[in-house]
């Protein structure tokens, strides 16, 4: 099947972006240089086209009960305007997707899902919704989305787009009427920096992208640095650190799984893993040398294969070669000495926390 | 537009050899460094390693990917470019000056299998 195009596709090509296939979309991986784009987000402001992300609206008298049933985090008693991160699980505990839930009202929730999983997720959500008094709507084709990320984002959004967001705290959002449409703006992101995500019609997103690029206030940033940025602060990517066969407990994301709330799909498995422990876990590993551990490389202890790298880079912000890896639990303790097979050689490394760079969120 | 230098020998996998007497300096071309982007690590062979024409002898890593290096010539590694250990970005700055290994050629007739500058330029278009 041919890749889909976002509403900004022509603009990416006009800027000379290098385009790749990602999650069923033809997306920019970089415009000029992955390191420059990465550093723009760490030190100033970058803008990403994230229109490939999916959106599902859930409404109805049982909307909250329904979301509680398919989602691992606890949204009970949430105020309108609050956002939750969590996962949808298979009954086996394996992860269908990780997602954001925006509470728009007591009977209205907006779910943001990964591009590659839109069809799978929506089929799952629709199937589960049959037992509830809710209406679900896949709005992925309607919405375009911008992520404006970096320490200067608040000023850029205010001065260039004319949207004041000072009062928005991390993981909250508001809906605003602009140009005859309702847009959503949230203080969220996937870079470890302060920033905002804006959801609107294609024409709204195109117009605001143009303002950001033409003013020079935000550097256009591709998926290449989106991955290096999220990786450095230990955020998971579905497909690498979360999969249909990996639970959020194994991924080290137990804080987003509330096993003290009423029943949700997959609860028995993750509750048991929380109580009894897991047999494997995602950890961070730092190499002594500069060789780069990449997705799929083997983690070894002596002659024994004990795991596999899920994501690895030479960290742009720190210069260190680090990775996240799924390893046998006997080797998951901080400080454990392991090796990573890179081409013909084994490079020595140490298990460390999987946050390689400190987040700079505005709380 | 990628730079190409007259007088060097080029492989289809974008390595070059600069021949001086019985030695060849092997590196990656300017076109190759441009395609890779920021080089962050060079996995080099060791001195005294034997390398064989057409076979892998190391790798160049950019932020996003690792690219295997294939030796354009056979012989014994007599020197590696140690400056690349701490400054791999030198390859981006000037690929033709920052060779990766110096090889004592065991079979100079192999050079006939490589391309000259003009032929190489044509495959980079």
Which labels suit this protein?
heterodimer, A: 363 residues, alpha+beta, Elongation Factor Tu (Ef-tu), domain 3, 6-stranded mixed sheet, 6-stranded antiparallel barrel, globular, B: 125 residues, OB fold (Dihydrolipoamide Acetyltransferase, E2P), 6-stranded antiparallel sheet, 4 helices
Descriptive account of the structure:
The complex is a heterodimer of chains A (363) and B (125). With 363 residues, chain A is α+β, with helices and mostly antiparallel strands. Chain A has helices spanning 9-14, 34-43, 63-70, 118-129, 153-159, 202-215, 223-232, 267-276, and strands at residues 18-22, 25-30, 46-49, 54-59, 83-89, 95-105, 108-113, 135-138, 144-149, 173-178, 181-186, 195-200, 219-221, 280-287, 298-301, 304-314, 321-328, 337-342, 345-352. Helix content of chain A is 21%, strand content 33%. In chain A, strand 10 (173-178) and strand 11 form a beta hairpin. In chain A, helix 2 (34-43) packs across helix 7 (223-232). The radius of gyration of chain A is 20 Å and the shape is globular. Chain B is of the alpha+beta class and 125 residues long. Chain B has helices spanning 30-36, 83-86, 90-93, 117-123, and strands spanning 9-10, 15-20, 23-28, 39-43, 50-51, 56-62, 66-70, 75-80, 101-105. In chain B, strands 1-2-3-9-8-5 form a 6-stranded antiparallel sheet. In chain B, strands 4-6-7 form a 3-stranded antiparallel sheet. Chain B is globular, with a radius of gyration of 13 Å. The relative contact order of chain B is 0.27. The model of chain B has no long low-confidence stretch (mean pLDDT 95). The interface between A and B is medium-sized, with 17 and 13 residues.
């Amino acid at each position: 099947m041919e890749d889909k195009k976002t509403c900004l596709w022509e603009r990416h090509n006009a800027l000379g972006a290098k385009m790749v296939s990602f999650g069923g979309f033809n997306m920019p991986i970089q415009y000029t240089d992955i390191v420059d784009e990465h550093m723009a987000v760490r030190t100033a402001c970058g803008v990403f086209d994230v229109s490939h992300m999916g959106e599902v609206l859930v409404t109805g008298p049982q909307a909250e009960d329904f979301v509680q049933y398919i989602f691992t985090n606890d949204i009970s008693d949430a105020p309108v305007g609050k956002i939750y991160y969590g996962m949808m699980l298979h009954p086996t505990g394996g992860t269908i997707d990780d997602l954001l839930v925006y509470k728009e009202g007591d009977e209205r929730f907006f779910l943001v899902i990964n591009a590659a999983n839109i069809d799978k997720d929506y089929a799952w959500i629709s199937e589960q919704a049959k037992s509830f008094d809710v209406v679900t709507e896949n709005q992925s084709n309607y919405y375009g989305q911008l992520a404006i990320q970096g320490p200067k984002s608040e000023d850029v959004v205010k001065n260039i787009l004319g949207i004041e967001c000072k009062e928005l705290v991390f993981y909250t959002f508001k809906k605003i009427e602009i140009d005859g449409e309702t847009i959503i703006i949230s203080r969220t992101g996937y870079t470890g920096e302060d920033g905002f995500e804006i959801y609107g019609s294609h024409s709204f997103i195109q117009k605001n992208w143009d303002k950001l690029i033409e003013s020079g206030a935000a550097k256009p940033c591709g998926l290449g640095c989106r991955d290096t940025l999220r990786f450095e602060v230990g955020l998971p990517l579905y497909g690498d650190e979360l999969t249909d066969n990996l639970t959020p407990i194994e991924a080290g994301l137990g804080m987003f799984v509330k096993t003290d709330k009423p029943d949700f799909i997959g609860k028995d498995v993750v509750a048991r893993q929380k109580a009894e422990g897991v047999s494997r876990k995602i950890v961070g590993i730092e190499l002594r040398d500069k060789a780069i551990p990449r997705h799929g490389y083997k983690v070894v202890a002596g002659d024994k294969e004990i795991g596999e790298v899920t994501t690895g880079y030479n960290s742009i912000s720190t210069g260190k070669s680090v990775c996240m890896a799924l390893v046998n639990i006997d080797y998951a303790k901080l400080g454990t000495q392991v090796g990573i097979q890179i081409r013909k050689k084994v490079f020595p490394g140490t298990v460390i926390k999987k946050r390689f760079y400190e987040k700079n969120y505005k709380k | 537009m990628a730079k190409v230098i007259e007088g060097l020998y080029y492989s289809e996998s974008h390595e070059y050899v600069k021949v001086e007497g019985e030695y060849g300096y092997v590196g990656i071309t300017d076109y190759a460094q441009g395609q890779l982007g920021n080089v962050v690590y060079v996995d080099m062979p060791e001195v005294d390693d034997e390398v064989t024409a057409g076979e892998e002898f190391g790798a160049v890593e950019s932020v996003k990917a690792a690219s295997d290096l294939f030796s354009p010539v056979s012989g014994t590694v007599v020197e590696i470019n140690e400056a690349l250990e701490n400054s791999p970005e030198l390859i981006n700055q000037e690929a033709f000056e920052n060779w990766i290994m110096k090889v004592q050629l065991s079979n100079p007739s192999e050079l006939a299998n490589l391309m000259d500058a003009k032929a190489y330029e044509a495959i980079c278009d």
